[in-house]
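quick one
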Amino acid sequence: MGAGTIERIELRQIRLPLLDPFETSTGRTSERQIILVRLRDAGGAEGWGECVAGENPTYSEEWTETAWPTIQQILAPLLVGRELSSAGECAARFAHVRENPMAKAALETACWDLEARRTEVPLARLLGGTRAEIASGVSIGLQPSLDVLLDKVSRELESGYQRIKIKIKPGKDVALLEAVRAKFPGIALMADANSAYRLSDAPLLRQLDRFKLMMIEQPLAHDDIADHARLQREIETPICLDESIRSAANARLAIESGACRIINLKVGRVGGHGVAREIESICRERGIGLWSGGMLEAGIGRAHNIALSSLAGFTLPGDVSASARYFDEDIIEPPVTVSSRGMIAVPPGPGIGFTVRLDRIEALTVRSAVIS
Ligand code: OSB
Ligand code: MG
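structure w/ 2-succinylbenzoate:
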C-alpha cells in the first residue's frame, strides 16, 4: 500500500525559543523559526514533516524565508491531489527543481510518516531500521568561557551521553580541546568547525591529533571535497563531512577521494529519507563511519532522525539528544528522552511514533497556509 492521494497540505511556521543560545563559527541562534508540514490523504491519515532550514542562510543557502515559498508555491503543488505509489516516489516529483534539499525533505519525510501511519508500521521499520535504540551524543556550542564549557561537558556526561562534540573556530580551538581533554581524558570527544578553516591551517589542525579526537567535523569550506582530501593526508584525526555532503553522488566522491572517513548524515541536508537511505547503504558497504547529525530540531524532526538512525549503517553515536536540552516544552508527546546509558529508544508505534501536540503548535504558530 502506497502513500495514497494527498488531499491537503498544511504548513505552519512556529516560533520556538531555545533555552540557551546556540553558537557556532557561523553565528548564534536564540530562537527557532520552524516550518512544519502536515499531510492528509483521502482516507484521513496524516503525515508530519519538519523543515530543518535555519533562521539565516549561514549553514547552507536555505533559510526559513526561502523554504516557505519554495514549499508553498513550488513543491507542495507537485504533491497535492495526486496519487503517490509510495513515499519513495516523492523525491522523483521534485527532481526537476534544483537544490533546496531542506524544503524538499520537509515534504518527503512527511510522505514517509504518512505511509508508515497508513500501513500502521513504525517509520523506523518502513525505512529498513533494525535497532530498538540508538546511541546519543551531544553538540555543545561555543561558550562564553572555558569554565562554562567544562561545566557543560561535565553535566552532559553525568546525564549519560556517549560522546561529546564541541564547536571550534580559529582562536577557540587548541586551548578548548586541551582543557576538555585534560579534565576528561577517556571520553569520546570530537570537534566541529562548521567550515571555519582553510587548507593553509593544516599545521594548526595537525596539532589537534594529540587530543585523540574521534573525528574533526567539516574543518574546511562548506562545498569543498578536494581540500578535505589533501588535509586528511596531513592529519591523523579522521575527517567527518557534514555541510559538503548533499547527495549520494558527492558522498561517493568524498569517500573515493579520501576526503572523509566518517559522514554526519542530516536528512534535511540531502533532501529526504530516500537519499539518506542511499548514503547509509554506501557507507555500510564501504565501512565508512556514519551517524545522524541534528539541526536544533523540534520533536517532529527529532523523531525522523531517530527513525533513520535505527538503520544498521549508523555505527556511531549521533547528535540527536533529548528535547529538554533545547526547549522548555517540545511539540511532541512524550518528549525525546535519553537513558542513563546514553540511549534513545526507537518508538514502537506507527509513523514517527510520537503524538504531535496540536495545542502547542497552535499556540506557537506565526504563519500558516493550506495547499489543497
Ligand atoms: O554543524 O552539526 C552542525 C546545529 C545547527 C546547524 C549545524 C549544526 C548544528 C549542531 C547541533 O551541531 C546539533 C543538534 O543538537 O541538533
Ligand atoms: Mg556540523
